Amino acid sequence: MLVLFYFLNANLHTDLTANVFLNLYLLYLLLILMILTQLMEPELESVPSAEVAPSDRFWTTVLTTLSGVSVEELTSAIAKCKDLVLQTAPMSAIRRELVRRLIELRQKLHELKDGLAQDSKFDAAVMGHQFKTPSRTILERRYCEFCGGLIWAFLQPWYFCRLCGFYVHVKCVNKVKRQCASLIVNENPVFELEICPERGLAMQNFQCADCKTQVSIDSSLMVEASQTARLCHYSGFYFCSVCHWNDEMVIPARVSRSTRQFLRLMQKRPILRLEAMNPCLFKNIPQLQKIKSLRGRLLLMKPYVMYCREAASQCLITHLRPYAHFMETLDVYSIRDLIDINETVLEPRLIQALEIFEKHIKNECSICQGNGYVCELCDNSEILFPFDRSIGKCGQCSWIYHKSCFDKNNGICSRCLRMSSRMAIRLLSKDSNTRPSSDIIFRRSRAKRSHLHSKNYLPKSNNTLLLLFTIIIVKLWGKYFFAACTCFTISAILGVLYLEKREESRRRMGIWLSLQSKNEDQITD
Prior knowledge:
- With 525 residues, the protein is an alpha+beta fold.
- It folds into five domains: 49-176, Wheat Germ Agglutinin (Isolectin 2), domain 1, CATH 3.30.60; 190-265, Herpes Virus-1 (2-Layer Sandwich); 277-371; 373-434; 439-459 and 500-525.
- The chain contains 20 helices and 16 strands.
């Protein structure tokens, strides 16, 4: 392309105008070339996961026993982990795993440099677990989650995960293959809403879903060194007897150990929208209907309790601490909420919190009382609040009335009528002071409309001029046909922009005239 530019420039005539046109054409081509180069540039493809995934030996020697590594080993491991992160695709599972392990390495390096390695929050990290040596001896019986053997607390060293409660022997910590349930909760906090989805053991290649041990359903067909498969009634996967202890959860059914840890961590997360899942629940279960009405009153109290200085100093919100999400939304529940509703524990707690909030708003706090309402349809000076039971509320200005007064007035808000009348008087007084008489207005409006309709905002002469301009360019500089085409393109773009601007001004003028006609009709009326 550059050679072509040089050849064309060498064969130019001395005519100055032709040189200008050709230079503009060359600049135009350079711009197009740069844009096409960027568009056609291939994106950096990520290295396949098989090449990027670090070896098990690397993570076993560096990340598993963090208490025994030095600063140099951690520094080299961090550098290698950085390179692996940059080679993976964004938002991929491998990148998330590498970033998580990079954070663990940097945290351990920071502790080593500060001399706090002996007081670390965890002693080993495997598959997202943060294992720590227990500070005291437990008396209840514990079993290793990997081998299923009994943990002799007085004789054997053992770890527990401080995130999910995974118990394991120290000798088994390097062999753990189950991912920490806290990672699943943080990355994908979603419940399986199907009742025991059917997956099949063949889809798992007759292996345990966690430890990949060979399992079989029929004991007569069992191969040597295989175990009886146990079904998890939550996920639908099959597990071996080490990974499935027939634990019962509130779903209610027997679940695997990994599912049990997941459900236990998800128990207090408010992510269940019951009305979207089953709208008939609130019609058929009176307890849910009662809880919904109490939550509605809580939401109406939120502006008073959350933003009052006195309420903040008294920490009134702590009375609702286990159910703080009730102050945010109306239709979101957690498994813990449903358990408390079934055990008739939630309703008395909400009633107690509502009584405390209502006492503060109506009797104790002058700031909250100042934000109340007074009924304008009667002589009663009682202060009303949005969470009161027998009230009527205007749908436009949200003013509060007594329900009986509001119904007697046929749902007409006196405040809205007063505000609309004031606005009409203000507009009439402003128009009478600034606008001329009505007959002059009509004459001017007719003249403007006729002027707009007579004037052509999309003239055909513009296209004719562009065509003539192109023909003149081709006639004068025939050998520079490409330069002429470029000029025609630029002039066409400018013409289109000009026409769009004129069309926009015409549209605005039409809107203004319609508003003027409405004002004129109001004045004449």
